[in-house]
Write a structure and sequence with these properties.
Layout: H1 3-17, H2 24-36, E1 41-45, H3 51-57, E2 64-69, H4 72-84, E3 91-95, E4 107-112, H5 119-126, E5 130-138, H6 156-174, E6 178-183, E7 189-194
Parallel strand pairs: 1-2, 1-4, 2-3, 4-5
Antiparallel strand pairs: 5-7, 6-7
Bound molecules: S-adenosylmethionine.
S-adenosylmethionine binds next to α3 and β2.
């Protein structure tokens, strides 16, 4: 079966089962970024069923991806999908809560796409695993257009989630070590890069 067909199958499966995967223009944007910046190794927080990891690995034959997922059923599905696409030699799947997973590896790009309430924790924990001029990419910054919108009619849980995302945006904007740019693509993407110096 050809790659495109298998990828469409994963999209259909995610849609039918209600599994959140990256929006089409978001994943295209991320893959283009990986290509343009010659990214070779990626750490992803939040694999779901392997859709974004597969797409990133397919950008170039010498890209490797390490991806962490805490949900066992999704992890098992991701293992199958990665095998079907014959990418198991280049994608390493880890079944773990990312906040309990430690590595000394360094990456060109860290992609955060897991529990939105924990974004600051993921950023702080894994920024030491970034190569000196590497990037941290975060998805769902706009959360369906809800960040920076009126919260009065939202449920308590949603309000708390949106407040955490807004705090994350402030955290990125005020971060002295990283410079962040925000892109209105997919569900909103932030790209943070370590500054060379205070003005960089
Ligand atoms: C939005 S989905 C990831 C989608 C995937 N990146 C894609 O586009 O194909 C988020 C995933 O992160 C996982 N997750 C949430 N918090 C996590 C954590 N602390 N550690 C590992 N995985 C986590 C969830 O189980 C969920 O499957």
């Amino acid at each position: 079966m050809d790659q495109d067909f298998l990828i469409r199958k994963i999209e259909k499966y995610a849609d039918e089962k209600g599994i959140p995967i990256m929006e089409k223009d978001g994943i295209n944007f991320l893959c283009e970024f990986i290509k343009l910046n010659k990214i070779k190794n990626v750490l992803e927080i939040g694999s779901a069923i392997g859709y974004s990891a597969i797409n990133m690995a397919l950008v170039d034959q010498d890209i490797t991806v390490t991806t962490i997922e805490r949900d066992k059923d999704r992890y098992i599905e991701a293992v199958k999908n990665i095998k079907r696409l014959k990418l198991d030699s280049r994608i390493t799947l880890i079944l773990a809560d990312a906040l309990n997973f430690n590595t000394s590896e360094e990456y060109d790009l860290i992609f955060i796409d897991a529990a939105k309430s924990q974004y600051i924790k993921f950023f702080n924990k894994f920024s030491s695993n970034l190569k000196p001029r590497g990037y941290i990419v975060t998805d769902n910054i706009n959360f369906h257009g809800l960040t920076n919108s009126d919260k009065s009619k939202m449920s308590r849980n949603l309000r708390q989630l949106i407040t955490k995302l807004e705090k994350y945006i402030i955290f990125l904007n005020e971060n002295k070590e990283f410079k962040t740019r925000f892109f209105e693509v997919g569900d909103g993407v932030a790209i943070s890069r370590k500054r060379k110096n205070k003005n960089g």
